[in-house]
Design goal:
Strand content: 5-15%
Order of helices and strands: HHHEHEHEEHEEEEEHEEHHEHHEH
Helix content: 25-40%
Number of strands: 13
Radius of gyration: 21 Å
Amino acid sequence: MIPHLDLKRTNAPYQAEIAEAMQRVAASGWYVLGKEVETFEQKWAAYCGVSHCIGVANGLNALELILKAYEFPEGSEVIIPANTYIASILSVTTLGLKPIWVEPDLRTFNIDPKKIERKITPRTKAIMVVHLYGKCCDMKPIWDIAQRHGLKVIEDAAQAHGATYNGLKAGNLSDAAAFSFYPTKNLGAFGDAGAITTNDAELARKLMSLRNYGSTIKYYNDHIGTNSRLDELQAAILNVKIKYLDAENERRRTLARFYLSEIKHPHLALPSAKTLYDDAWHLFVVRHPKREQFIDYLMDNGIQATVHYPVPPHKQKAYAEYNHLQLPISEQIHNEVISLPLNPSMTDDEAAYIVQTINQSVSLPHATVGYHSSL
């Protein structure tokens, strides 16, 4: 079986360095907000091309802390993409804010800039973009809209480590950006971990306080904060793995280029190749009108495909108050998407087998149904 992702295999080349880093932390006697976190914050800020990085406990907390720091009045509206992982929405509603759903562009899966402005009201305070699957959103028109209406721009860059837009890296395309370093990410820790990047010095100072109970001086609390700190052990692991991020992303691009050029299937909608060299290719996501049969076919042939994500946030039980919304593009995406295996540990032979297996499926009964793509 070719797995969708084998973390043991992916991390194997770095095990000796990681073990050494973990031992260094164990021997230091300092386990929270120490030198490893400070070092990683400096490295990640430099990598993203920003002035400040604040390490936090996870990607969801990163989004929540950004929104909390801006102190938007309760009930304020935040423009969000309808097609995203639920964490993006949770960060908004947890802070007592209202998500305003905007449909994606079917070609990119990302929020459609042309549909944003009509959703803005006097209560709108921010636009949250999600660089889904490792492809940056089209940020220039989004920035133009934000400036016209005096809105903050927030990036959910949890899947976009190393992705670029017009020469700038994800994390440097907004007022503030949130990253997750969950183990499956392009830059993944060995547990939950996250960070915020920004060029706003005052915002960075506030976030440093908010992540640590609202305190900058021990036992003195300036804000109603929380406990959301990147720990030393995860930071040490990230300090090892950040050195290999660009090489791993390049391997992802090589595999994506091969898929894009060699997969020949009339009923399979492939991702756009327009930004091949800018994308981080966290996931290689295709669409098929009969997803379950196609996944079963792949599994029967030793290929593990998965779905990111089967249910759109507005149709989740957790958001029953939004279940009535009709967002047909998002719903089509969530009904059709399939994530093919694509990760740095894959071999050329595995990629070739996947392509061969997909191309052979064209003649199978379940794959011959006519597919009128909206691309």
